[in-house]
Design goal:
The chain is mainly α and 454 residues long. The protein has two domains: 40-138, no CATH class; 141-449, no CATH class. 75% of the residues lie in helices and 0% in strands. It is built from 19 helices and no strands. The protein has helices at residues 15-57, 65-95, 114-123, 128-138, 143-156, 162-171, 175-182, 188-219, 224-245, 253-280, 285-295, 299-309, 311-325, 328-346, 356-363, 367-379, 385-408, 413-416, 421-445. Helix 1 packs parallel to helix 3, helix 8 packs across helix 13 (311-325) and helix 14 (328-346) crosses helix 15. The longest helix is centred in the first third of the chain and has 43 residues, at 15-57. Mean pLDDT is 80; it is low at 1-6.
């Protein structure tokens, strides 16, 4: 089975070659997830410690650790009783076919350890590890950042030994099963609502960018092979679109790597800056998700940036991205017209005939169907809130962690330097213009249009 242009052929024959790198990414991903769990726990405990410290300063602190713990347990028990009553009412309504909203199970309270409670109440100081965890989360140094920054650091210092290279490259597409799993969070009403707005964004900015680069590249006398893959990659979907268009425009290996270098350079800069730009602009998670889904060039990078910003951001970004990658066949058709048919007609030759259905069949990304199947199963009520928690906590994060490990370990500064000359300027200017205009558009449209309710 083809790898989709990532440089590794998926087959049982190549499994021994890929296995060491895949295992490396799995271990790296697992360690990053442990970091994530630990720092998030410390951050939650920091907030609880702040509450206790405030009570101490106001003279309202519990008299003992046992009293403190009992009070939290009793509060949680009361919330659980209310939840069970709401859940019973929900099931009864569903059985009758009446519309009802599934109640959300209350989260277990954060309970400080006795040692931390004692330090807060007696020393009036929050333990250092809890402050550290809170700082880590505030700076969004989650497992996503650890894998991307850590992987990039390893790749560009000690390097990745040759025995691991094939497997780390093969790990990157494992993000796509995670995207399929995300389907369990959506109802069709979400997909259609966000998808329609996303479609308008795709038409306005993504396809517009592709057309802009095509005409600008021709005017600047950029080789059609380089302009073609650059336009597809910057306009639509990063590496996947560039790979799909490359044979159509007869791109040389040099053209392809120049385009990929530009795409990766812009995408890498966007990945590490957009979350902070979004915060500075006051973007809500759904609005940020719509922005990165439109503006960041590569699926892996936009999923990473959206995950970095928050889960609701990821849900919106994923729908917009699904719409975007669905345009790959149309981008191929545009490339055939602009770089093959149009020049032939201008030269007085008969244009090449296009089998539209064959292009769509060959180029349509299969994982999109998996996502739609999961949405349909959720619409049918096959996934409970608990099922979705298991999917998100275990499977989804597992696929993302292994995939992000592969992304980080393959960000090489040498590859980013392969962007070249006029085509690089055209690609970066077009991508930046798209990002700026898309940010203005999504903020003007507002959160409600992009919010996924599930």
């Amino acid at each position: 089975m083809s790898s989709g242009g990532i440089g590794v052929e998926y087959s049982f024959k190549n499994l021994p070659k890929m296995l060491p790198g895949l295992l490396l990414c799995a271990v790296f991903g697992w360690l990053a997830l442990q970091w994530d769990v630990t720092t998030h726990n410390w951050s939650r405990e920091f907030k609880e410690a702040e509450k206790v410290l405030k009570a101490v300063n106001e003279g309202k602190a519990p008299a003992s650790y046992d009293e403190y713990k009992k009070k939290l347990e009793e509060s949680y028990a009361k919330k659980m009783e209310e939840f069970k009553a709401q859940e019973a009412a929900y099931k009864e309504a569903k059985a009758k076919g009446e519309p009802a909203k599934e109640p959300k199970k209350p989260a277990k309270p954060v309970v400080l350890s006795e040692a931390d409670f004692t330090q807060v109440t007696q020393s009036k100081a929050i333990p250092g590890k809890l402050s550290f965890g809170d700082m880590v989360i505030k700076f969004q140094l989650t497992y996503v950042a650890v894998l991307l920054l850590g992987g990039m650091l390893i790749r560009n210092t000690v390097g990745v030994p040759e025995i691991f290279r094939a497997g780390t490259v093969a790990a990157r597409p494992l993000i796509k099963p995670g995207i399929i799993i995300l389907g369990a969070y959506y109802m069709w009403s979400d997909v259609l609502k966000v998808g329609v707005v996303g479609l308008l964004l795709v038409i306005a900015f993504v396809i517009g960018t592709q057309i802009l680069i095509s005409f600008w590249g021709r005017r600047a006398k950029v080789d059609s092979g380089l302009a073609g893959v650059m336009g597809a990659g910057v306009g639509v979907c990063g590496v996947s679109a560039a790979v799909a268009v490359a044979p159509v425009v007869n791109a040389k290996p040099r053209d392809f790597f120049y385009a990929i270098g530009t795409i990766l350079l812009f995408g890498t800069l966007a990945l590490f800056t957009f979350p902070y730009i979004g915060q500075a602009l006051g973007m809500s998670q759904p609005v940020f998700g719509a922005w990165v889904g439109t503006a960041i060039l590569n699926t892996a990078q936009l999923v990473a940036a959206a995950s970095w910003y928050g889960h609701d951001s990821l849900l919106t970004a994923n729908v917009v991205n699904i719409v975007r990658v669905g345009f790959i066949p149309l981008v191929v058709l545009w490339a055939i017209y602009f770089y093959v048919v149009k020049p032939a007609v201008e030269a007085g030759h008969e244009g090449q005939k296009i089998n539209v259905w064959e292009v769509i069949r060959d180029k349509f990304p299969i994982f999109v169907f998996g996502f739609f199947i999961m949405v349909t199963l959720n619409e049918m009520g096959l996934f409970t809130a608990q099922d979705r928690t298991i999917l998100a906590s275990d499977l989804l994060k597992l696929f993302f962690a292994i995939g992000f490990a592969g992304v980080g370990l393959n960000i090489a500064f040498d590859d980013l330097k392969k962007a070249g000359g006029t085509a690089f300027v055209i690609g970066v200017v077009a991508a930046t213009l798209k990002a700026v205009l898309a940010a203005i558009a999504v903020m003007a449209i507002g959160e409600e249009a992009f919010k996924v309710k599930g």
